[in-house]
Amino acid sequence: MSSLKDYTLTLSQSIPSVVKYGISNKKNDVRSIVLETSVKLTGILMATAITLTWLRNPNSYYQDGNLRIMSKGISIASEIKTSWDYLYSLDGLKVGVLWLLTILLVLKRWYIEESFMALQSFGVQLSTSSPFYLISLWSKPDHFIPVNDIVDIIIHEGFKGFQVIYYMAIIVKDQKELTLVFPSLLPRRKQLERIWRGSRRCLYRDKPSRLEIPQIVR
Length: 218
Fold this sequence. Notes:
Blueprint: E1 8-15, E2 18-24, H1 30-56, E3 62-63, E4 66-67, H2 84-88, H3 92-107, E5 113-119, E6 123-128, E7 143-146, E8 150-160, E9 163-172, E10 179-181, H4 189-203
Antiparallel strand pairs: 1-2, 2-5, 3-4, 5-6, 6-7, 8-9, 9-10
Helix pairs in contact: 1-3
C-alpha cells in the first residue's frame, strides 16, 4: 500500500495571495521511462508507416470495391517491414481505426496529475489532468468554488474497499455531498495536512481563528 502512494507533491506560489499544490503519481525511475518511451516510439513508427503508405498512392488501396494488396511497400524500418501485408489486407475503415488507435497510444498520458489552487478572497480551483496529451475531450473541467460558498475545508478518515484512508474535502454551502480534493489519487495524510494548512493560510490570512489543526472524523 505504501508504494502505491509515493506521490510527488509540488508547490507553486509566485505571490502570497495565490498558492497551488500539485500531486502526481508519475514515475521517474529508469524502467518506467524506458517502457513509456519504447511504447511511444513504436506508436510513432506505426503511425508514420500508415500515413506515408497511404500518401504514396491512396487510390491504389481499392480495386473493384475490394482492397488490393500492394506489391511494393514503403519500408520505414526493417523491424516493421513484415507488417505491410497485414496492414494492406485491412479495409479503409479498419486502417483509419488502426491509425487513430495508434495516435491515441502515442498521446496517452501514463500518469495522473491533480492540482488544488487557493486564491485569497476569491476561492479554490480543482483540476485533474487529461488522460491524453493535447486532447481535453476526456478531461474533467476545472472546478472553481467561490470563497463565500466554502463552509470549511476538512480532512476525513474513511474506507476505500477494505482500506482505511484519509481524504481532503470541501464543505460547500447548499450542497449535500462533499467535494473531494485529489479524488483520483487520494494522497497520504501527511501531504494532505501540508496542503490543508497552506491553503488555509492563503484563504483565511485575515482570520487566524480558522488556522487550526486538521479535523479528523473517525
